[in-house]
Design brief:
219 residues; alpha+beta; Immunoglobulin-like; three-stranded mixed beta sheet; 1 helix; disordered N terminus
């Protein structure tokens, strides 16, 4: 069978065209994709929910690097925030309206060209700038021996406080919790069988919570 050269030429031209189109399609599919990934890649995506599981919108998200804030954004209506530009080494992400009660996720390192997901459950809290301070006081007494070990079963004797205003016997961590009214004074003594006693004295200044340590030495 004889095939003319013109027919061969047409077949060659068609094959060349198909190959060229395939190559172009491959280049079109690859090059813009790479450019798109470079333009839209985000290092971190933070999702913030309330304890109920409901997305928490409008929450400030801070990116901290070497102790300095380098980026800030807020969660959208779906509780999501994206931080695209970030260093290659470790960062921290802080979540919250105020430093009091905020959530900090530390030492995060981005994934190479993949977005790292960060999930946070957040309860809004403030430092109390606009809250009136209580006038009463809370007292925490820690009872230990001379080696710093907790002493459970120590007793606080006092004639200045009413029964029911706290605990008079130390727990397994050597703790006693007392409640004092404004300007109320506590004068007492801490005792435990087999140990020497120790006096305890304090007064409630307006809204000032106090933590005290009492050392009892074995007799």
């Amino acid at each position: 069978m004889t095939v003319s050269s013109s027919r061969l030429s047409r077949r060659g031209a068609i094959a060349h065209t198909v190959a060229a189109r395939c190559l172009c399609a491959l280049l079109v599919s690859c090059v813009p994709l790479t450019a798109a990934e470079g333009a839209t890649y985000c290092a971190y995506e933070v999702r913030v929910n309330e304890p109920s599981g409901k997305p928490f919108a409008g929450v400030p998200i801070l990116l901290v690097h070497n102790g300095a804030q380098i980026a800030e954004t807020r969660t959208d209506a779906t509780g999501k925030a994206r931080i695209c530009d970030a260093p290659l080494d470790a960062v921290s992400i802080a979540v919250g309206f105020d430093i009091c009660g905020s959530v900090v996720v530390r030492d995060l390192v981005p994934l190479w060209l993949r977005t790292r997901q960060v999930f946070v459950t957040y309860v809004r809290s403030t430092c109390g700038e606009f809250v009136s301070f209580p006038a009463d006081c809370h007292l925490l007494v820690r009872v230990v021996d001379d080696k710093g070990r907790f002493l459970p079963g120590a007793r606080l004797g006092s004639k200045t406080l009413e029964i029911g205003s706290g605990s008079d016997v130390s727990d397994e961590f050597g703790r006693m919790f007392r409640y004092l009214k404004e300007h109320e004074k506590l004068d007492g003594v801490v005792t435990k069988e087999g140990y020497g006693s120790s006096p305890l004295s304090t007064k409630c200044s307006i809204g000032a919570d106090t933590e005290m340590k009492v050392i009892l030495r074995k007799q």
